[in-house]
Design goal:
The complex is a heterodimer of chains A (85) and B (469).
Chain A lengths: L6 H33 L5 H40 L1
Helix pairs in contact in A: 1-2
Chain B lengths: L2 H23 L9 H8 L1 H13 L19 E3 L19 E3 L7 E3 L3 E3 L10 H14 L3 E2 L7 H6 L3 E5 L8 H4 L4 E5 L10 E3 L6 H7 L7 E3 L9 H15 L3 E6 L4 H11 L3 E5 L10 H6 L4 H14 L7 E5 L5 H9 L4 E4 L1 H8 L28 H25 L13 E3 L2 H7 L2 E2 L7 H6 L10 H7 L1
Parallel strand pairs in B: 4-13, 5-6, 6-7, 7-10, 10-11, 11-12, 12-13, 14-15
Antiparallel strand pairs in B: 1-14, 2-3, 8-9
The chains are: A mainly alpha (85), B alpha/beta (469).
């Protein structure tokens, strides 16, 4: 790792990007949940089908958010480990 | 009322009158009515299977597993909250994702905690059905499982996440195949059939089946009772280590639930397994001997509870994932298994039924609905693939939504946060065994209530007595 001069800066950039992605995923997940609520109001089979797809998308975006959080935490651990050396 | 209708009603009346007269006047021993108490004594399922055994002379392969429901899921209830802890606001998303094998180099991440169980191509279901399962699982962001089979290219292509069974037939046990999986499940048994051998005869094996399994023409597909070349505990430990090193994906063990559960799990922990799948006695199958289905194994509810408690006791609760399976057909049962400690659940029978859904009308009343999906089915070409994918995807979505609703009323923000404290039971024995509260008395009165009944050592089993002495 010591042979990579920009590693620390690269990790910081990755950490920042991951935070951005997880915020976006969280926002979109909430939006998709709202779409589900809106679309199921009409008691229409086709709209309900779209609502179900939105609800599923919301969960997958929720997973992306969790993955980003876990990766950001891992990067923090690596940065701390580098700082201690 | 038309003439025909009046005639029919008249004839039906005469027949009914005659039947009642005959029933009450004939000697009981010569009376057709004897079939009713006889069927109640033997039960209609056993009666039919007695006749099948008598006609065939061989064990009769009953499809879909045992009809006995030995896990008393209905005796567990979730606890809603209102004020002491508030319910989760409805605009808060419930986390449904799960990481299987968190300590593996490449853990398996799924969006929902419902996985499609191992149902093999050929040995169990058709190629089209396998592709439907893979497509629907991918849409829902979850994984499907090969079952005991070789790697089918079409399934691999359709599945975003594929768990493969390193199996006792040896069909997926080559690096060229298992290095293409997202997780490896070493299959040593299943709830419906224990660790018994199984055989698909060559006459039921088509050309594509032979190709996927690497079989010669005329060769039977045989699942042995043991994995090829694994005859000692050390052999198994070496195998797990090798698969982990070669692939980096989670490597797990699947066993039939048994009273020896903890001893089996200890070997899995010693081997470094990333996940353990316990398949309860209610597990499904394409066809198994009724005795294996009804009289062998441990019910899913107790298996999950014991497995989770064992992992906690061993300090492996965070590192080793627990997957529950075996007769879980409702979202409530699935979530109760999670609250007892499972990280995720496999569904098999319910997934096949959901996939077929309203298409069962195509087969009834002359053939069973599964004829659309099983490999040897007569109507597999009539399964509408797109409709089946939608049916299963909708089913998964609806199940997860119902589970989310329970999380909301329990005041939790993740399905994985539900635990034994969110459950209550109406059975005192279950309360003690599962370490959850007994609903007849308040939480603070539990110890006092039970102490009135049980003196220490009252219910010692032979094994416990032996341990004391």
């Amino acid at each position: 790792m010591q042979h990579l001069p920009n590693l620390s800066e690269t990790l910081t950039a990755f950490h920042s990007d991951l935070n951005r992605i997880q915020t976006m995923a969280g926002t979109l997940s909430q939006l998709d949940r709202q779409h589900y609520n809106d679309l199921t109001k009409y008691d229409d089979e086709r709209l309900t089908g779209i609502a179900v797809a939105e609800q599923n998308s919301s969960r997958q975006l929720g997973e992306i958010k969790q993955l980003c959080l876990a990766m950001a935490q891992k990067i923090e651990e690596i940065q701390q480990s580098m700082g201690q050396k | 009322m038309g003439i025909l209708s009046r005639l029919l009603r008249g004839a039906a009346g005469e027949v009914a009158d005659d039947a009642v007269r005959t029933m009450v006047r004939d000697q009981y021993t010569e009376n057709l009515f004897e079939m009713i108490p006889a069927a109640k004594k033997v039960n209609p399922i056993n009666l039919a299977e007695i006749a099948m055994r008598a006609a065939q002379g061989t064990p009769v392969p009953r499809p879909l597993g045992s009809h006995l429901r030995l896990s008393p899921w209905e005796k567990l209830l979730f606890n809603p909250v209102h004020l002491f802890r508030f319910p989760t606001p409805e605009d808060v998303g419930i986390t449904t994702s799960v990481r299987i094998g968190p300590r593996a180099k490449k853990p398996l991440n799924v969006s929902i905690p419902l996985l499609i169980a191992g149902m093999s191509y050929g040995g169990a279901i058709s190629k089209n059905a396998k592709i439907v399962l893979a497509r629907a699982a991918t849409m829902a962001g979850t994984a499907t499982n090969t079952g005991e089979a070789g790697l089918m290219e079409e399934e691999r292509e359709a599945a975003g996440l594929l768990i493969g069974q390193y199996n006792r037939g040896g069909w997926l046990n080559d690096p060229a195949q298992y290095t293409r999986l997202d997780a490896i499940e070493i299959q040593l048994g299943q709830g419906a059939q224990g660790s018994t051998p199984q055989r698909t005869t060559a006459k039921n094996i088509g050309e594509e089946y032979r190709e996927v399994f690497g079989l010669a023409e005329g060769q039977d597909a045989v699942i042995h009772s043991r994995l090829p070349d694994i005859n000692t505990r050390e052999d198994f430990i070496r195998l797990v280590g090798r698969l982990k090193a070669e692939t980096g994906v989670p490597v797990g063990l699947k066993i039939a639930a048994t009273h020896h559960l903890e001893k089996e799990m200890q070997v899995a922990l010693d081997a470094g397994c990333d996940f353990i799948t316990v398949d309860g006695a209610e597990g499904g199958t394409h066809g198994g001997a009724p005795t294996l289905e009804d009289d062998v194994g441990l019910p899913t509810l107790f298996a999950v509870s014991r497995a989770a408690q064992f992992l906690l006791k061993k300090g492996a609760g965070r590192d080793v994932s627990l997957i529950a399976t075996g007769g879980l057909v409702t979202p409530g049962q699935m979530l109760k298994a999670m609250a007892l400690g499972a990280n995720a659940v496999y569904i098999g029978t319910a997934a096949v039924m959901a996939m077929i859904g309203d298409q069962m009308a195509k087969t009834l009343p002359f053939e069973p609905p599964t004829d659309l999906a099983v490999y040897t089915g007569k109507m597999t070409d009539r399964l509408d693939l797109d409709k089946s994918v939608q049916n299963l995807f909708y089913f998964l979505n609806a199940c997860v939504r119902e589970m989310e609703l329970v999380a909301i009323t329990a005041g939790k923000v993740a399905l994985g946060d539900l635990n034994r404290d969110d459950l209550v039971t109406l059975d005192p024995f279950l309360a003690r065994a599962l370490k959850i509260d007994f609903g007849y008395v308040a939480p603070e009165s539990q110890t006092a209530y039970f102490s009135e009944f049980l003196a220490p050592g009252t219910f010692q089993t032979n094994n416990e007595e032996a341990a004391v002495h």
